[in-house]
Amino acid sequence: MTWFRRERKPLTSVPDKHVKTEGLWVKCEGCGRIIWKKELAENQEVCPRCEHHFRMDSRRRLELLLDEGAYHERDKGLRSTDPLEFTDLKPYRERLAKAEQATGMLDAVIAAEGKLGGRPVVVCVMEYGFIGGSMGAVVGEKITRAIERAIERRWPLIIFSCSGGARMMEGAVSLMQMGKIAAALARLDDAGVPFISVMTDPTTGGVTASYAMLGDLNIAEPGALIGFAGPRVIEQTIRQKLPEGFQRSEFLLEHGMLDAVVPRKQMREFLIRALEFCGVGMAAAERAVAQAG
Amino acid sequence: MDRPDPNSSPEPSRDEPLRQEIERLRHEVEQLRRGQTEPAEAAPPENGAEPATVNPAWERVLLARHPQRPTFLDFVRELFADFVELHGDRRFGDDPALLGGFASFQGRQVMLIGQQRGRDVKEKIRCNFGMAKPEGYRKALRLMRLAEKFQRPILTFVDTQGAYPGVDAEERGQAEAIALNLREMARLGVPVIATVTGEGGSGGALGIAVGNRVLMLENAMYSVISPEGCASIMWRDADRKQEAAMALRLTAPELLGYELVDEIVPEPAGGAHLDAAAAARLLGEALQRNLASFESLSPGELRAQRYERFRRLGPFFTEA
């Protein structure tokens, strides 16, 4: 007989306390805080508490970056023809159609022209929402054309990468885009036109191993995953868990692979400052003429 | 006791399987005499495990990875008189997975660059199964610039599953090393002939394959990802590798069809692994012919030709 008896409260399962917020709130992946989406949007998709940088829509990025949020889009109508007629669990064509519907874009990059701090620039922004921002023939061609325009006009080139790498569904065709873009960048370099590569979360595979790492300046947003092989592939190779922070922007900065890690809210000012150093486009040419004369 | 004695003849029932085994091994040794390998390694490991029906693309994958397929150093031995290996990237170290050096080729001085996959287990481990690290790509670039300085053509030999996906490689900038090679190879002022001899695995392969001409051995493969990797991502099942191999269009005839490679180098009947000398002869003939076609071009013309070659790759889009 016990003198005291513990009252047994039966464990009742708490019913789902699901309140329908209709997507008004989002949980921060960095600090776990629940953030009002509108507040997040006003803060450039950066967590107000922990500065975690959320992935950002490509159009939004262009609007925030360029003067008056104005830009002119080029090569908008390029669309993949599915050269391999690739089908895995789903036909590639279906994936393309779905991505088009979701993003309102025909492929994973916007090639644009606009002004940054009063100077004309060529800007490419990759869209992760379009098949993981993967690079196929269309991305390769649009970026190559953008580079060629930058050479022709002597406008600085800025590429915001956000991509899982080459697009598997276009096989070796997408692999060769790496060579094509790198060759065009050699010409840009010969021409002395500046190229700033901005890596955002994530930038991996064939995109990192071609243009993303070939900037005159290679910079990144904080906390972005940047690497050649994806973390899962590495874990399978070495059969070990990877340490926290491996392949993040700060890790690359520490290992000498980046010029700077630039928070999103300072990105515009940083780019304007960097282009001032580079002496941009026509302004530089005119200065040279003036000095000669 | 169990050891067979060739002079005694015990009961034929016990002896017969042994005799057959010896005969089989002798035959294998005969086939392997060029490829200093233990006979135990002779059969491709997949032999037993593979299902009876092998699709044609997967068959090529098995041939491209065949353990007896001639490696970079086999081709070097067969084709070049006096190879002098050069080591190191002058930054970090020397990568045994990606080799380079000068040699003479039918009276010409040439620079050779290639991935060494390795033959026996010991060599495979030493050269990291042909998976190069950043120092390998940086060494390759250093040697290619050396060749450019002295106006010597460059021959590269691609045979890798891919660049090494490991912690140290990432720390030292694997992506940057490959990216830089792509850009700098594009503007070399000397002829570059790249040949995919075995497995052309993704960026790690392309990192030494930005050539004025890209040749591919008949049974080689060239792909953006391994069939296994593709199957595990797209099918969520690595066992669907045969389907993935088909879907990726990674065989030489298919890639020629897409105009991603310029020429297919024939192999001896049954594949290069059956006769390395003959395979090398056929490759040598193609290299000689292609080198000759670039002899009269100036550095500027070579750069322009290479640029145009890569610029037109993959016109698979419509334009609204």
Task: Give a structural overview.
- The complex is a heterodimer of chains A (293) and B (320).
- By secondary structure, chain A is of the alpha/beta class.
- Chain A has helices spanning 37-42, 58-65, 92-103, 137-153, 171-191, 205-208, 231-238, 249-254, 264-278, 281-292, and strands spanning 25-27, 34-36, 71-74, 78-80, 109-116, 119-126, 157-163, 195-203, 217-220, 260-261.
- Chain A folds into 2 domains: 22-54, no CATH class; 56-292, 2-enoyl-CoA Hydratase, Chain A, domain 1 (Alpha-Beta Complex), CATH 3.90.226.10.
- Chain A has a 7-stranded mixed beta sheet with strand order 3-5-6-7-8-9-10, sandwiched between helices. A two-stranded antiparallel sheet of chain A has the order 1-2.
- In chain A, strand 5 and strand 6 form a beta hairpin.
- In chain A, helix 4 (137-153) packs parallel to helix 5 (171-191).
- Chain B is an alpha/beta fold and 320 residues long.
- Chain B has one domain (61-308): 2-enoyl-CoA Hydratase, Chain A, domain 1 (Alpha-Beta Complex).
- Chain B has helices at 12-32, 46-49, 56-64, 72-79, 121-126, 134-149, 167-171, 174-186, 202-206, 227-235, 241-247, 252-257, 276-294, 299-311; strands at residues 84-85, 98-105, 108-115, 154-160, 192-201, 213-217, 221-223, 263-265, 317-319.
- The N and C termini of chain B lie far apart (81 Å).
- At the A-B interface, strand 4, helix 4, helix 5, helix 6 and helix 7 of A face helix 7, helix 8, helix 9, helix 10 and helix 11 of B.
- Strand 4 of chain A pairs antiparallel with strand 9 (317-319) of chain B.
